[in-house]
Amino acid sequence: MSFECGESSTALSSTVISFSREPKRKPSLSMYSALTCRLGGELAAAIGKEAEYSKRRRQALKRVDRELSRGNFKVALSLVKQLQRKPAGGLRSLGAAKLVPKRLSSLDELELDSKELLTLQALFDSVMESIERCNPFDSLDEAPSDTVESIVEDGSYVSLKEEDHFMCVQHEAGHFLTGYLLGVLPKGYEIPSAEALKQDDFAVGRVQFVGFDFLKEVADARKQKKDTGQVGSWAMQGNRGEISSKTLNNFSCVILGGLVAEHLAFGHSEGHYSNINKLDKVFQWLGYNKSEADSQVKWAALNTVLISHHHIQVRSRLAEAMALGRSIGSCIDSIENALSGELI
């Protein structure tokens, strides 16, 4: 009996060992096919939803274009604000950029890796050198009075050569993108053709924005000073309560967006710094002294460098749309598509 039990145990043991050595079953082709079909279906559904959201956004942006073309800027702004709040098919990137607090005055105070810090520091230093070469605050009273009237435009770039067309496009795209990411709606733009630049040494490009209406007041104040013979004493009583700090901060960054874009695209700027002069006229109108103006410019340059450097490819896509003369809505759509799924 004991022998039989032992024999039975041995047989059982052999059976167990034999079972443990049996090769694992590999997934069959049908299992792979089923999994692939399921994943493919989920991917197709996700792509379908994204396509539907994009279609809705384009349709909504056509309405924005219609209102802008009619001069209904407040209505257009209201429409984009509604789109901004939509989680799907909305304007995810509008106003999504975050500005560095004013208590931070240098890149060293930000949490950046050493490689990125070196790149950004070189760019920032180059931009600041260009701004300082302009030195508008010190030479403001000697500036020709007829250069001030163009302050009613929200951005311009003077081109001297035909090959500057590409630089002009990049410059204006820099204004457009910076404004949009800060929540400022562009209401129109102009990009001179290469032929126009060839025929006219002073052809200009420009981007205009909703919400910078105070620039007209700055121009009017300057004109009044000129009419009364006080151009040489441009010091103002101060209009600091006329615009909010947020508007000034946005304007300061937007006005530098073109200059920074040139540095990113070409490593230098060949503009005539009319944007810097415009910014300085605003500081004078507000009653800022040189120290206050320098501090605001440095802070704005720091933020604009950070925003522009992180979105080089987005600006390139936008520049392509602007070079083709696309509508404001189409340009906005190109930004949203380029930033889809990206951190802002």
UniProtKB/TrEMBL annotation:
Gene Ontology process terms (BP): proteolysis
Domain of life of the organism encoding this protein: Eukaryota
Record's protein name: Uncharacterized protein
GO MF term list: ATP binding; ATP-dependent peptidase activity; metalloendopeptidase activity
PANTHER family assigned to the protein according to its UniProt record, in alphabetical order: ATP-DEPENDENT ZINC METALLOPROTEASE-RELATED (PTHR33471), T22H22.11 PROTEIN (PTHR33471:SF4)
Annotated organism of origin: Citrus x changshan-huyou
